[in-house]
């Protein structure tokens, strides 16, 4: 039976979900997206659009009425309204899972209860509470806003006693938590999926390099030992076992200096570190997400070609309309998101550099990347 797909959020993730949906014409007849920006990236590739805020109750119900299955590309959705909308349509991942994940404290509590490794953490209720609890963790420690944080903007690294007051007062009115600082040697992630029938699949672990708290490069596969790869995969599998609802999840992890793997956080959605799958794997994470929520058998997650994903971020030099210089290389797949204006650090596109002959390996790809990076220039238009 053909289904109408509803999507909350129509940025680049929604755009690539829409593109995958268009290739699944036997299963999905139409995509309707809810997004506040008129002609959002998903609309540009063929989704119909309801223009409204992501949390707008009326718009969410309007969308739920129009579609057979509903999903989302953002974790800041209105989980309470989505719970009510479950009586109108099937929503995945489940709004209850979204509610837990979108609060970092509830998320870590849930993982810890299920014996999935995370760093030590504690809820913070007041400045005095912070002053008391920091003694458990020592310095440095991270004070985090529990909700609505992204690109590290909800984090404050407390390096000494002198940072306690400024850290606390930088989050007025926010619910907070404190985390023990993890002295990691690498950040990795696993893209995992579960379909509505309970089938689970995980992609091989990848390595993530951040700049200014924003993902810059993903290296697939991660340069880790088999032992670490197995730990990461097991953690991802165990997580999928306990989370309710279907879909693709991006599971961000740390590898400690002692070669232990622990979860940093989970995204209940397709993830930037899974963009390499568009070229590296038989099934992209976007198709996989749709297969999961449609109840289809999950696709093959084998990494067929080593691949590097490089994010194209707006430069700090200017905001406004832009062009990027022509650049390219063999086996480079560029994907721009159709955003007309650049802003500092805004995700404007990415490319995948693919070792299609399986001869270069990730070290060879990284070397090619150095030369390619130099060619990318922003031109103000
Ligand atoms: P994003 O939007 O990138 O997912 P976020 O705002 O949700 O980020 P986190 O994922 O909590 O924030 O943290 C951002 C980065 O800060 C992590 O990728 C990691 O580099 C660092 N970080 C977070 N928690 C810790 C920790 N407990 N110890 C050490 N570093 C940490
Ligand atoms: Mg994060």
Describe the structure.
With 381 residues, the chain is α+β, with helices and mostly antiparallel strands. The protein folds into three domains: 89 residues, Rossmann fold, CATH 3.40.50.20; 61 residues, Dna Ligase, domain 1 (2-Layer Sandwich); 197 residues, ATP-grasp fold, B domain (D-amino Acid Aminotransferase, Chain A, domain 1, 2-Layer Sandwich). The chain is built from twelve helices and 21 strands. Strands 10, 11, 12, 13, 14, 15, 16, 18 and 20 form a nine-stranded antiparallel beta sheet that branches. Strands 3-2-1-4-5 form a five-stranded parallel beta sheet, sandwiched between helices. The protein has a four-stranded antiparallel beta sheet with strand order 6-9-7-8, with helices on both faces. Helix 1 crosses helix 11 and helix 4 packs antiparallel against helix 5. The longest helix is centred in the middle third of the chain and has 17 residues. The protein starts with a strand and ends with a strand. 44% of the residues are buried. The model has no long low-confidence stretch (mean pLDDT 97). The site of magnesium ion (MG) has 2 residues, from loops.
């Amino acid at each position: 039976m053909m289904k109408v797909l509803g999507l909350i959020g129509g940025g680049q993730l929604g755009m690539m979900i829409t593109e995958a949906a268009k290739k699944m014409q036997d299963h999905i007849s139409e995509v309707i997206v809810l997004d506040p920006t008129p002609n959002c990236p998903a609309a540009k590739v063929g989704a119909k659009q309801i223009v409204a805020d992501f949390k707008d109750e009326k718009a969410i119900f309007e969308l739920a009425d129009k579609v057979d299955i509903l999903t989302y590309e953002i974790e800041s959705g209105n989980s309470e309204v989505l719970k009510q909308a479950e009586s109108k349509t099937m929503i995945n991942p489940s709004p209850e899972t979204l509610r837990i994940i979108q609060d970092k404290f509830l998320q870590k509590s849930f993982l810890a209860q299920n014996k999935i490794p995370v760093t030590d953490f504690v809820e913070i209720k007041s400045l005095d509470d912070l002053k008391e609890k920091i003694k458990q963790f020592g310095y440095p420690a991270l004070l985090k806003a529990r909700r609505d944080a992204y690109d590290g903007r909800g984090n404050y690294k407390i390096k000494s006693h002198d940072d306690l007051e400024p850290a606390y007062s930088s989050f007025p009115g926010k619910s907070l938590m404190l985390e023990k600082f993890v002295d990691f040697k690498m950040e990795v992630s696993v893209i995992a999926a579960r379909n509505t029938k309970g089938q689970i699949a995980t992609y091989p672990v990848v390595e993530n390099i951040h700049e200014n708290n924003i993902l810059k490069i993903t290296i697939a596969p991660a340069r880790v030992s088999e032992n670490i790869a197995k730990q990461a995969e097991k953690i991802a599998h165990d997580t999928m076992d306990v989370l309710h609802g279907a879909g693709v999840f991006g599971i961000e992890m740390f590898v400690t200096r002692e070669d232990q793997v622990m979860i940093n956080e989970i995204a209940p959605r397709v993830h930037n570190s899974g963009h390499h799958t568009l070229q590296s794997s038989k099934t992209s994470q976007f198709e996989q997400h749709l297969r999961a929520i449609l109840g289809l058998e999950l696709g093959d997650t084998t990494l067929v070609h080593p691949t590097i994903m490089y994010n194209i971020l707006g430069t700090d030099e200017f905001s406004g309309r832009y062009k990027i210089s022509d650049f390219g290389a063999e086996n480079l797949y560029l994907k721009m998101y159709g955003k007309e204006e650049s802003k500092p650090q805004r995700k404007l596109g990415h490319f995948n550099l693919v070792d299609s002959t399986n001869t270069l390996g990730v070290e060879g790809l990284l070397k090619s990347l150095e030369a390619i990076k130099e060619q990318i220039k922003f031109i103000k238009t």
